Sequence to fold (304 residues):
Amino acid sequence: MKAILPKLTVAIAVLAVCASAQQPPAAATAYPAASSGQAMMHQVARQLHQQTSVSAKVRHRVNLLGRQLNGAGQYLQWGAGDEKLLRLELAIQVGEASTSLKQVCDGRFLWIHYNLPDGANVQRVDLRRVRKAATQAAPARPASGDHWIALGGLPKLLDSLAASFQFDPPQPSQIQDVPVWRLQGRWKTEALANLLPEQADALHAAEPPDWSVLPECMPHLVEAVVGRDDLFPYSIDYRRYLPVADDARRAAGAASESIVAMELYEVTLGGRIDTRQFNHAPPQVEVIDVTDQYLAKMGLLEAP
Fold:
């Protein structure tokens, strides 16, 4: 169990739009649809970068490696620029086992706490090294799992999606009378070629990819739901195409299934946050430095 839970929790990214999404304030003005989904994703990321604070509750689900994981918690973001203070807490249920994940970015380090059934585990990521590497080369993989916290939180996650996926034009929709835009993105050729280098020539020749060699934890496409009145990303859902042999679900109109999804709700933008929540108390167990592992998983190479 100890080996499985970290793999699953590291895979977390963000869930289908909440049925209880907060009704926008009456004074809000609806944003018009951008000329393309790509333009809207850039607009959403830019607005998140400019927010002085973000507070939201989080729900997530993961369906990977033959396991189902469900959890809930809170996301906090404070400050402008790339050195934001961040906190993500998740209580996670995997079958009969309960665990929790807490990540605190204090501006200098990202601290990662796993409370597992058989004990605690504390890891640390040196954010100076991550930022240095990120300025020299864009990540070869999209920011998922806890990578997006290390890179700068929710705004960087949206930047990563816009860089890795080509989004179709936004489609208007409603969630319990809340107006939203739905966007679907598919891998950009260059991003997919980085993941599947042995298929790079075929992909650049516009041939379809051989999806069977893409690791099970990697998505085929991503779907996002954005508020029409506030351009906040209430949902990000990573999905994989159903196997060709799965005739029953395909006949029912399902072409893909969710593998990792995260939902943000009860969102407050620009409110007051007690910054002491971003302080990190000295751990009572040995701290494991995992900076090298993070750089490798993000496809970032440091200069000598």
